[in-house]
Amino acid sequence: MTYRVVAVDPRWKDAGRQKFLTDHLAEGYELVVPKDFEMAAMRKELETASALVTGLGDITAEMMEAAPDLRVVGKAGTGVDSIDVAAATAMKIPVAHAPGWMRATPVAEHALTLMIMLSRKPWLWRGEKRPPLHIQMSGASAGIVGLGNIGQRIAARCAAFDMNILAYTRTRGKFKPEGFSVEETGTIEELLARADYVILSLPLNGQTRGLIGAKEFALMKPSAFLINVSRGGHVVTDDLVAALGEGNIAGAGLDVIDPDPISGDHPIFSLDNVVISPHCAAQTESTQRESYALLSESIRLAVEGKRVESLVNPEIYD
User: Fold this and answer.
1) Which of 10, 89, 118, 214 is the 20 to 30 A CA-CA neighbour of 18?
2) Whose CA is closest to 172, among 199, 144, 153, 147?
3) What is the DSSP annotation of 57-115?
4) Does domain 101-276 have CATH number 3.40.50.720?
5) What string of DSSP letters covers 193-232?
6) CA–CA dist 64, 95 (Å, integer)
7) Nearest-angstrom CA–CA distance, 136 and 142
């Protein structure tokens, strides 16, 4: 018998992504990438699916209900805001993912990369016209919003640059850094007003969507930078464009933008104080292989009726 693993995200048309999974799928498992990702066209594939996998595309209750043989849904990433976890839990379907620690290091490295690029602007230092002087990170304040696996690793790397580290987190006092200190602010407003770099590294949910908008940009220093390596939905994009264009903040480093994907003719691409990467912070060779190997194993365990260990809804086994 062949178990069908159906991809529901158009990003799975990418041959490299497919290979990461197929290299690790157990014998008897087949990856299916539909030609058409509209729900009406996908129904036939869903009817025989044992597993659904995604990236940023939605896995909806409707999709799961259309797959009578479904044993598991998941992704090789950490955030599962693209999956209807409540619906999956109600159906006793495990939602597999890569735990935060697995992708935290490359994302933290990427955050520092964006900070350095904005501070140094190396691509501008050529030709006869000299760009503005560099911005020195040593002695500046890094304000980290969210102190989970990624935020903690960002803090450690900022400490190595001799930066002053501020943080706003809903789990105050939980992080115990070794060899450096982190000042936790009582409110996000205090952090925004004091930080030279505001770095977003928190989950996207109903409370954090639109967290940074016009009011928040008005609190930031005109010399401050926004760094987003979490989810585009944390930031109101139109308000960010206005803040950048009007000089209310100095610049932004973005690995994520809302909407994603964003049109190539969007006004944000016309700004010279923005550095943008295509949601690739965690995509190192070693991390991708490790994450897809874990996803493949989670699929095998679920199909065989065994407990999936790396999942976001363990209560289905209660």
Assistant:
1) 89
2) 147
3) S-B-HHHHHT-TT--EEEESSS--TTB-HHHHHHTT--EE---HHHHHHHHHHHHHHHH
4) yes
5) HH-SEEEE----STTTTT-BSHHHHHHS-TT-EEEE-S-G
6) 12
7) 12
pTM (2 decimals)?
0.85
- Domain 3-100+284-317 matching CATH 3.40.50.360: the answer reads no
Count Cα neighbours of 299 within 13 Å in the Cβ-side half-sphere.
32
Closest to 274 in 3D by CA, of 114, 123, 129, 108: 114
Residue 99 CB neighbour total at 10 angstroms: 15
Give the position of tokens 């002053």. Answer: 164
Q: Where are the domains of the chain?
A: 3-100+284-317, 101-276
Residue at token pair 């480093």: 253
| Chain position carrying tokens 């797959």 | 67
Radius of gyration, CA atoms only, the chain? 21
Peptide bond connecting 259 to the previous residue in cis, omega within 30 degrees of 0: yes
- Three-state secondary-structure class, residue 237: helix
Q: Match 């390596």 to its residue by tokens.
A: 229
The answer to whether the beta carbons of residues 257 and 56 sit under 8 Å apart is no
Cα gap 228→159, rounded to integer Å? 19
Confidence of residue 130 (pLDDT cuts 50, 70, 90): confident
Tokens of 289: 């292989």
Segment 16-51, tens digit of pLDDT: 999 999 999 999 999 999 999 999 999 999 999 999
- The tens digit of pLDDT for each residue in 247-265 reads 999 999 999 999 988 888 9
